[in-house]
Amino acid sequence: MKITEFMGNKVCTLMMESEGHKVKIEFMYSEMHPEILDYSFRINGNPSLQTRNIVNDLAEKKMQDLFYQLTQNVL
Fold this sequence. Notes:
The chain has one helix and four strands, in the order ββββα. By secondary structure, the chain is an alpha+beta fold.
């Protein structure tokens, strides 16, 4: 996991593997008003639509969990 800063906001980038595909999760959040401002999931390879939906759901859950930990100073 890597955290950088862009235009006064934090940008978190991490990799995970799900359903046999590597996924890059990147999201921007504000510390002043804890909310996710923008995010993207990049799936390596060409999974089927069903697999892509599963991977997207898992990536979104991972992003939300990590965002909560970052904003609650757990990490």
